[in-house]
Amino acid sequence: MSVVAIGECCIWTRYGAAATQPPSGIYARPEIRIADFRSCAMNSVAAVFRSRAERKVVDAGYDPARLPPGQYLTEKWPVLHAGSIPTTDLATWDFFVEGEVESPIRLSWDELNALPRTEHTQDIHCVTRWSRFDVTFEGVHWSALEPLVKPKASAHYVVAHAEEGYTANVPLSFLRDPLSLLATHADGEPLTPEHGGPLRLIIPGKYFWKSAKWLRGIELTANDRPGFWERYGYHNDADPFEEERYGF
Q1: pLDDT tens digit string along 20-68?
Q2: More confident residue, 83 or 129
Q3: Adjacent-strand bridge partners of 158
Q4: What are the CA-CA distances from residue 191 to residues 63, 138, 163, 187, 242 (Å)?
Q5: 3-class SS at 103?
Q6: I need a surface site. Which of 21, 60, 103, 152 has the fewest CB within 10 A?
Q7: Comparing C-alpha atoms, which of 3, 123, 141 is closest to residue 67?
Q8: Contacts of 72 (CB under 8 A, 6+ apart)
Q9: Taking the alpha carbons of 92, 221, 200, 143 in that order, is the dihedral positive or negative?
Q10: Which among 120, 130, 131 has a CA at the least distance from the CA of 187?
């Protein structure tokens, strides 16, 4: 007879002849399938992780409801990306909006920064499980660009184009969200290259891979097209509070 227990999870097995009675004592349970036990054990580990993560949030003076499941709070801003950090010459840099629009545009760095600017504060959540609260971003909201390009009625989705051929996809409604931004600054300073400067897309309420670094253009499309990470199996919707990390 063997008995294994983790927290509230317990499984007992008997080798040889099939067991007809459970063992007596504190560990007595009906027989549980191995798959069920493994799931229960994983849930117990997740509960411990969540308890510790929430305790850190409370100790820092925040509401634990702000922390999505499976995340931990950090005051740092970890640097994660695919490929190398591009070198940017702002004298030749430009930004485009094209696709399902009446008037495609291409703006220089100075022209983009001459548009009305917006600042707001929000939490960011990385799919690698870190969260950072109260990050203040400054930049240009889509509402300053939309009248210039005049989206067609067929425009329903966005493909964000960045350096190195990287793309990210969201519905157009996400770009219209009041907290979305084409950000040039974070916490009062210009975005550094490792954090996506000179221009980074900020999409609120989604895992941070949707907020494409090194943004160079916005394409409006009639149909949804998977972005770089979505093609590698990441979830298309990327809601951190639903733990939509992967699409498989």
Answers
A1: 444 455 444 555 455 554 555 445 555 655 778 888 889 888 999 999 9
A2: 129
A3: 170, 220
A4: 28, 10, 15, 9, 29
A5: coil
A6: 21
A7: 123
A8: 49, 53, 56, 129, 130, 131
A9: positive
A10: 120
Which H/E stretch holds residue 73?
Answer: strand 72-73
- Summary mean pLDDT of the chain: 84
Tell me the domains of the chain and their CATH numbers.
2-67 (no CATH), 73-242 (3.90.420.10)
- CA–CA distance, 138 with 115 (Å, rounded to integer): 12
Per the CB < 8 A criterion, the answer to whether 105 and 149 are in contact is yes
Residue 235, both tokens:
């979830």
Does residue 107 sit in helix, strand or coil?
A: strand
> What pLDDT is attached to residue 48?
56
Q: Are 136 and 188 in contact (CB under 8 A)?
A: yes
